[in-house]
Automatic annotation (TrEMBL):
Family matches, as PROSITE patterns: ANK_REP_REGION, ANK_REPEAT, ARFGAP
Source superkingdom: Eukaryota
InterPro entries given in the database record: Ankyrin_rpt, Ankyrin_rpt-contain_sf, ARFGAP/RecO, ArfGAP_dom, ArfGAP_dom_sf, GIT-like, GIT1/2_CC, GIT1_C
Keyword rRNA-binding listed: no
Source organism of this protein record: Electrophorus electricus
Keywords: ANK repeat, Coiled coil, GTPase activation, Metal-binding, Repeat, Zinc, Zinc-finger
Region ranges (Disordered): 363-409, 449-496
Molecular functions (GO terms): GTPase activator activity; small GTPase binding; zinc ion binding
Protein name: Arf-GAP domain-containing protein
Listed Basic and acidic residues bias regions: 449-459, 484-495
GO BP, sorted A to Z: brain development; cell migration involved in gastrulation; regulation of ARF protein signal transduction; regulation of cell morphogenesis; regulation of G protein-coupled receptor signaling pathway; synaptic vesicle recycling
Length: 623
């Protein structure tokens, strides 16, 4: 950690020009080059002078830094009793790679030196207890305690069950501006209602903290404000009810009109993720521009290049791949995508569909309108953005100059949205199949109850019957419920029809299949492709177990077709999942999205075939 001041957190580096906002430390150019490679989820980097800072946010960082926030991230190194107390910190003469880089990653990404509270077996609510402590601490001015609790896992949006408020409500009521800023950096929602339906913004206005209320509104619209500022250098005037600026490209129509169908296909969750990813890419490009402007050492500038968004381990592999593709957009294509997101965010808000904008922060529709002589607060302000040719020194041309070539050429907005549309279609298919799976499970339970009741009604002692075969028995003997004459009975006794399994047995095996399909769909929703093979194997075993119940020739054309479909679907599912994990197979899809679609289709065939077999055996057994 870098420092300009003497003290317990003095740094080996000199002249720090950067700050990590969420870690509340100052860093030099060398350390900044490593921090940038960690990603915003680990370290949010800003230049102290060349980046526009909200004054209260900068004050919060300075306060934490001056009060030794660095000791939070180096707790075990500073503790003589700790096993890591003997580990040496990097020195000024150490090489950036690997010495300093490994230390910075361990310190800020892995949080290897943060004080950890020992977990007790009887206390499974450690995070809840930390969050309750956070709820109490934010009413005071002790920022270090709040940062320490957040570093240990306290939740910034924790809703206190007894108090009925979040930590941000408490900080605002107490007038703790810096606490509110710190909570905002860690994702606290200024629009979250308390038990009375009031938001932190409402309380700030009630108690007369108007500056704090305006700052909370800025935090609420941080994402869309950042996107607009990236394109036109202006932010909306929230004080007068203007919450959106939607720039328009000067040299071509916006793609929003032709791509509106694709946008509408995106669920709120997928749109939120896309907007957050684009915001991160905007931050990367802007930070990269400042980096190249301030660097005087060309070797460091080249070595510290961050060509695309770093991998976030909390995101799926598919989402991380999409995030990295954003770096391949040229300036005009990326500007088009930003304008489209701003347009659709505004459209969704007008449709009473809250769009989550950043780290769980929501933009809510403002209820109070200004007078007719002022601008309609629900109407966005439109700015014209010059093209690369018209403004060679503008933001767009600067972004174009910084566009990296990741490997396989540029990506158009249309192509990128097609992938997002496919994701939306896959998500819809998963939800449809999940609903079908749930419905089938309910139907199976109902069938089991009916069968149980029927068995109880028909259960009598064997002495009540003689050995004569009557029509009623034949109707329940699996021969289709037809009345047969004596000759037909004798013929069937001579060549008996193969006996189908009982409905109870088929239902039991079907439940095993549906449970495994449910887990497979859950893995597909979370893009956990590595677990596909194990679930496919379990489904194949469950299918094989069901097929073993039936005779080789079930005698029914419908049963034969259902069994073929069941076995074929399970085999294809297993082969698809196995093949995707083999690097030597080039004939099978390597695209995770395509794999997910094929897995969903196979699961659908299996579930449909299992349902058909239940219906067939139920009919044949006379239920």
């Amino acid at each position: 950690t870098c420092s300009r001041m003497e003290g317990p957190s003095v740094c080996v580096c000199v002249y720090p020009q950067w700050a990590s906002v969420n870690r509340a430390v100052l860093i030099c150019d060398q350390c900044c080059s490593v921090h940038r490679s960690l990603g915003r989820h680990s370290s949010q980097v800003r230049h102290l002078t060349h980046t526009a800072w909200p004054p209260t946010q900068l004050q919060m960082v300075q306060t934490l830094y001056n009060n030794g926030a660095n000791s939070i991230w180096e707790h075990s190194l500073l503790d003589p009793a700790s096993a890591m107390g003997s580990r040496r910190k990097t020195a000024v003469y150490d090489k950036l790679h690997p010495n300093k880089a490994e230390f910075i990653k361990a310190k800020y990404q892995m949080l290897a030196f943060v004080h950890r509270i020992p977990c007790r077996d009887e206390d499974l609510l450690a995070a809840r207890d930390l969050s309750k402590q956070l709820h109490s601490s934010v009413r005071t001015g002790n920022l270090e305690t709040t940062l320490r609790l957040l570093s240990l896992g306290a939740h910034a949006n924790f809703f206190h069950p007894e108090k009925g408020t979040t930590p941000l409500h408490v900080a605002v009521k107490a007038g703790q501006v810096s606490q509110a800023e710190l909570l905002g950096v860690y994702g606290a929602d200024p629009g979250a209602p308390d038990v009375n339906g009031k938001t932190p913004i409402d309380y700030a206005r009630e108690v007369g903290h108007m500056d704090l209320a305006e700052r909370l509104v800025e935090i609420q619209y941080e994402l869309t404000d950042g996107l607009a500022f990236y394109l036109c250098g202006r932010k909306p005037d929230h004080r007068n009810g203007q919450h959106f600026i939607i720039p328009q490209l000067a040299d071509s129509p916006c793609y929003f009109v032709c791509a509106c169908v694709t946008w509408v296909q995106l669920s709120n969750r997928l749109f939120e993720e896309l907007a957050m990813d684009v915001y991160d890419e905007v931050d990367r490009r802007e930070t990269d521009a400042v980096w190249h402007t301030t660097q005087t050492h060309s070797a460091l500038a080249t070595a510290a290049a961050v060509p695309f968004l770093p991998v976030n381990p909390e995101y799926s592999s598919t989402r991380n791949q999409g995030r990295q593709k954003l770096a391949r957009f040229n300036a005009h294509e990326f500007a088009t995508l930003v304008v489209d997101i701003l347009s659709d965010a505004w459209r969704r808000q007008l449709g009473n569909s809250c769009a989550v904008l950043k780290d769980g922060l929501t933009a809510k529709r403002r209820s109070d309108r200004s007078g007719s002589d002022s601008q309609d607060p629900e109407q966005p302000d439109y700015d014209s953005v010059a093209s690369d040719e018209d403004a060679p020194g503008g933001r767009a041309s600067r972004a174009k100059h910084l566009d990296p070539d990741v490997s396989d050429g540029p990506v158009s907005v249309r192509e990128f949205l097609e992938v997002k549309g496919a994701l939306a279609a896959s998500e819809a298919k998963i939800q449809q199949l999940t609903k079908m799976n749930t419905t089938m499970s309910k139907e199976l339970r109902v069938m089991q109850e009916k069968i149980s009741k029927a068995d109880k009604k028909s259960s009598v002692s064997e002495g009540d019957y003689d050995n004569t075969v009557n029509d009623s028995e034949l109707e329940h003997s699996g021969v289709g419920g037809k009345r047969l004459q004596g000759e037909e009975v004798q013929s069937r006794e001579a060549e008996p029809m193969p006996a189908l399994p009982t409905t109870e047995e088929v239902i039991q095996k079907t439940e095993q299949i549906t449970k495994n399909i449910q887990e497979l769909l859950r893995a597909a929703q979370q893009d956990q492709h590595d677990s596909f093979v194990s679930w496919a194997e379990r489904i194949h075993v469950a299918v094989s177990s069901m097929v073993a119940l039936f005779p080789q020739d079930p005698g029914s054309a419908a049963a034969r077709a259902a069994l073929r479909s069941l076995v074929g679907g399970a085999r294809r599912l297993r082969d698809e999942c196995r093949g995707a994990c083999r690097p030597d197979r080039t004939d099978l899809p390597a695209d995770p999205l395509l794999l997910t679609q094929q897995v969903i289709q196979c699961a659908y065939e299996i579930a449909k075939a299992a349902k058909q077999l239940v219906s067939i055996t139920t009919k044949e057994n006379g239920y």
